[in-house]
Structures are given as C-alpha cells and as structure tokens.
Specification:
mainly alpha, 5 helices, elongated
Length: 128
C-alpha cells in the first residue's frame, strides 16, 4: 500500500523532529526541510502515471493541449506553494508563508490568463 509508505515516512520524520528538538533544537529546522524534501521525492514518483492519464483525457475530450497545460501548471503551482508555505509556517515564519501564498496567487492568475482569454473569445463568439 503506497499510502502506508507516505504515512509511515511522515510519522517517522515527525518522531525524529521531536527527538532532535529536545537534544539539539538548532538541527530541527534542517531535519524538517530535509524530511520534507524526501517526502516530496517519494510523492513525485507517482506523477508519471498521472501524466499518462492526462494524455488520455486530452485525446478523448479534444481539449486544446495548451489549455490543459495551463490547468496542470495551476495545479502544480498550488501544490508547491502550499508545500513551501507549510514549511515556512513550521519554521515559525508565518509572515514569509503569507508572502509565498500571495506570490503563488499572482502566478496562478498569470498562468490562467490564456484560459480566461479563451473563455472570453467563446462568449464573444456566442453574442450575435
């Protein structure tokens, strides 16, 4: 079960953080970041299967691949921003986390512009 690997790794990292924080608190931030990176590497292995499924969806629906690419970028930005903001918050830097989230929202808006303009073109085309 893949979910057990992820849960087990997460719990192991948390236990390690608690133990190290008691012995050498200055190392806890480094362990948090390293553990988070290891978790991301484990999780990223599953994306290859996901992309092949998206290719099938594009073929079956006829959606423009550029628009679908925008959607995937938006999802990726959202996940990365949430991950980064979580790490910032965990290290006690909630103000930096807020700035990371703001930057992510702006990037998502910029990446979404082709979708918005395409939608506007469709609406304008429907008006007689």
């Amino acid at each position: 079960m893949e979910v057990l690997k992820i849960v087990g790794l997460g719990i192991t990292i948390c236990i390690l953080l608690v133990v190290v924080k008691q012995v050498k608190p200055e190392l806890s931030v480094a362990i948090l970041i390293a553990g988070s990176c290891v978790m991301m590497i484990v999780i990223l292995k599953y994306f290859t299967n996901l992309f092949s499924i998206f290719d099938v969806i594009i073929e079956k629906t006829g959606i423009d691949s550029e628009l679908f690419s925008c959607i995937l970028k938006i999802i990726g930005i959202g996940y990365l921003i949430e991950f980064s903001a979580g790490v910032c918050s965990d290290t006690g830097n909630s103000s930096i986390a807020d700035k990371v989230v703001l930057g992510g929202k702006i990037l998502i808006f910029i990446v979404a512009m082709p979708i918005i303009t395409n939608l506007l073109d469709i609406v304008i085309g429907l008006i007689p």
